[in-house]
Amino acid sequence: MKVFSSETQFDYSWEEVSCANWLKYSPWNKMTPHVIAVDTLQRSVDPATGILRTERLITCQQSPPKWILPFLKGQSTSHVYETSYIDPKTRKLTMCAMNITWSDFLNVRETCSYEPVRTNTGAEHTQFKQYAEITALCGGWQKIKNSIESVSVEQFRQNAANGRQGFEMVLEMCRKVWQEEREKAAQQQTMAA
Predict the structure, then answer these.
(1) Which residues contact 89 (CB under 8 A, 6 or more apart)?
(2) Hey, how many other C-beta atoms are within 10 angstroms of the C-beta on 162?
(3) In a domain, 192, yes or no
(4) Would you say 4 and 154 are in contact if contact means Cβ atoms under 8 Å apart?
(5) I want to staple 149 with a disulfide (CB 3.0 to 4.6 A). Which of 2, 4, 9, 43 is the partner?
(6) Can you give the pLDDT at residue 34?
(7) Is 193 domain-assigned?
């Protein structure tokens, strides 16, 4: 098993980040062309806790190295099952994802969280933590398993870096659109008065 973890801060409030999360794979994000579809399977709110639980199926077009393709039966399209929890009381967004495709060959389990943090200046930012365990399940030599895990971790690292950069694009666009909407609403109120 190999582990990937990273941590960063977004210079946006938790409210902005948790709302923009639903647009993470939108056309505003130019850095995730490998994501070709996102389907919401189920969404519910727990009446006791107020936690929004969402299940999604994410379809990706991968670019695995040619030497791994035989292990994947030549298949480069994969599906990821994601469950997210948004707790409005604790202001925490947690996403858990696992691969469905190739799961008999490679097991990938990822957990991401977004939580508000205060900076030294008192501004609110959002702390992002990402953790993934990647385990090759194929039989055979340990050297092959290690190679598959290492390649997978490196691909995961590249996708994560691109994902963060793309999410920054989405956050920037959301902030711009939300500001425009606030200005329109203020104009309409002024005109109505």
Answers:
(1) 49, 50
(2) 16
(3) no
(4) no
(5) 2
(6) 86
(7) no
What pLDDT score was predicted for residue 74?
67
Domain at 183, CATH number: 3.30.530.20
Domain count, the chain: 1
Output the pLDDT for position 135: 94
Q: CA-based Rg of the chain, rounded to a whole angstrom?
A: 19
Could you list the residue range(s) of the whole structural domain that residue 57 is in? 2-187
Whether the predicted model's global pTM rises above the 0.85 cut: yes
Query: Kindly report the CA angle at 164 between 78 and 81, in degrees rounded to 5?
Result: 30
Residue 75 is predicted with a pLDDT of 74
Structure-token pair, residue 9:
């801060």
DSSP secondary structure of the chain: -EEEEEEEEESS-HHHHHHHGGGTTSTT-TT-TTEEEEEEEEEEE-TTT--EEEEEEEEEE----TTTGGGGTT--EEEEEEEEEEETTTTEEEEEEEE-TTTTTEEEEEEEEEEEEE-TTS-EEEEEEEEEEEEE--SS-HHHHHHHHHHHHHHHHHHHHHHHHHHHHHHHHHHHHHHHHHHHHHHHHHHH-
Pair of tokens at residue 78: 């994969």
- Number of residues assigned to the chain: 193
